[in-house]
UniProtKB/TrEMBL annotation:
InterPro entries: NHR-like_dom_sf, Nucl_hrmn_rcpt_lig-bd, Nuclear_hormone_rcpt_NR2, Znf_hrmn_rcpt, Znf_NHR/GATA. It comes from the Eukaryota. It holds the Pfam family Hormone_recep. This is Nuclear receptor. Residues 15-90 form the Nuclear receptor domain. SUPFAM superfamilies: Glucocorticoid receptor-like (DNA-binding domain), Nuclear receptor ligand-binding domain. The keyword Zinc applies. The keyword Nucleus applies.
Length: 432
């Protein structure tokens, strides 16, 4: 008996996150990445033809995406994420099914465009046809209008779908930072140990603490001070039961974020290693944006910890001061919102100039970066207006330049510490 031909979705790598609830995905169901629970939920709602009127939690699901969504919002995320109810062949009267109707409104089904086009042709009602069989001018005009409308809406649907996926990944990354997942600063840990295996972004870890976080001042120890006085750096006695070592763990959390991206699964192993090794810039950017959203002018962490320093430290360590304040300041200056942030982070991450990328992967990363740049430009024009959009787009890209420069300075300082042998033990990711 011949083997069944696998569909395009079955040939894809297993996705890491469900588009409905944000949990670990079990595969592609109804043309979208989902877990088994959301697959069964979606099928059940479609078969019963349920029609929910609004969020059961008064809009809290949209404001706080870390909450488990209500049935209305869960169905909305499934449909916006690409789940197709028309794949379920056992629906009775699909044209009367409210879920199908909502799906058609979201995706602007091609059949509806064809019907709309035929209605417009009937309105024209040409009396005669040209002798060479060409369409009359009126019908050609309507056809061009419909084609343009279809292409525009298709592009917008694609943009919205990618944006929803990025925001879902961002929510999962935020949950991971606040979770009990606490990787420890192990001597000699390398990037190779993170290349393989699924991302932990879809795992459901419990929160690190049950009680609310209290503000805590963390006195900054600067790399300039370490180099100036040749102090030995030793983190072997760090107490992970009460707090997190954010300088290290934020890099691990960002690695898990990168592994959840669709483009990561398409890379060769050497390119995966190279991409993960460039994680520091993205981690710095993410920390700065989190601090900005919590109205802090210096580095602020999810457990309430805030970097602080004396006037003497500030005057003697200008580089460290800049690294903990400058990115936040420029984010505040441009008024960065969440969608601009996730697109900028993708542009920052996808750097085709990284060394040791495979040639094919370098081309892939370049094209992916170009797509995100186009999406950012479109969004900036829509949000800030045609007049101010181009100049604001340039300012947003300057944020990436600043992050890159400060991260390069940070790496150079750590190279000096390594060269002087001031780390008591071999530090993780020393090769990157």
């Amino acid at each position: 008996m011949p083997r069944r031909k696998r569909t395009d979705f079955e040939k894809q790598a297993c996705p890491s996150m469900c588009i409905g609830c944000g949990a670990a995905a079990a595969g592609h169901f109804y043309e979208a990445p989902a877990c088994c629970a959301c697959k069964n939920f979606f099928r059940r709602i479609v078969m019963r033809g349920r029609n929910y009127k609004g969020c059961f939690k008064g809009g809290a699901c949209a404001k706080n995406r870390s909450l488990h969504p209500c049935r209305y919002c869960r169905l909305d995320r499934c449909l916006n994420g690409g789940m197709n109810p028309l794949v379920i062949h056992t629906i009775q009267d699909p044209e009367k099914n409210p879920v199908v109707e909502k799906f058609l409104r979201i995706t602007d089904d091609l059949e509806r465009i064809r019907k709309s086009r035929s209605i417009q042709f009937d309105v024209t009602k040409p009396s005669t046809s040209s002798s060479n069989g060409d369409m009359p001018k009126e019908i050609n005009t309507q056809t061009q209008m419909c084609t343009f409308s279809k292409d525009t809406r298709s592009t917008q649907c694609k943009f919205d779908k990618i944006m929803l996926e990025l925001l879902a990944l961002e929510d999962a990354h935020g949950r991971l930072r606040k979770s009990s997942y606490c990787p420890q600063f192990v001597a000699g840990l390398t990037i190779d140990e993170f290349v393989l295996g699924p991302s932990k972004l879809g795992n459901r870890f419990v929160p690190m603490r049950a009680q609310r976080y209290e503000p805590l001042s963390i006195m900054l120890t600067t790399v300039e001070d370490v180099l100036r006085h040749e102090k030995f750096v030793d983190f072997s006695n760090f107490d992970y039961s009460t707090k997190k070592f954010w300088a290290f763990q934020d890099n691990v959390y960002m690695i898990e974020f990168i592994k959840a991206l669709p483009v990561y699964a398409r890379l060769a192993e050497c390119s995966k290693r190279t991409l993960l090794a460039s994680v520091l810039a993205c981690a710095n950017f993410a920390t700065a944006f989190y601090s900005y959203t919590h109205h802090s002018d210096k580095t602020y962490y999810p457990d309430g910890g805030t970097m602080s320093w004396t006037d003497d430290i500030a005057s003697q360590s200008p580089g460290s001061m800049r690294r903990n304040t400058a990115i936040i300041a420029v984010i505040r200056e441009v008024g960065l919102d969440r969608r601009e942030y996730v697109l900028l982070k993708m542009i920052l991450l996808l750097n085709p100039l990284l060394e040791r990328l495979a040639p094919d992967d370098r081309v892939l990363i370049y094209h992916e970066k170009e797509e995100f740049a186009k999406m950012l430009m479109s969004y900036v024009l829509a949000r800030r207006g045609v007049k101010n959009g181009p100049s604001m787009f340039t300012k947003l890209l300057s944020v990436i330049d600043l992050v890159t420069k400060l991260t390069s300075w940070q790496k150079n300082q750590h190279i000096l510490i390594l060269a002087r042998g001031l780390y008591k033990y071999r530090v993780p990711f020393a090769e990157s």
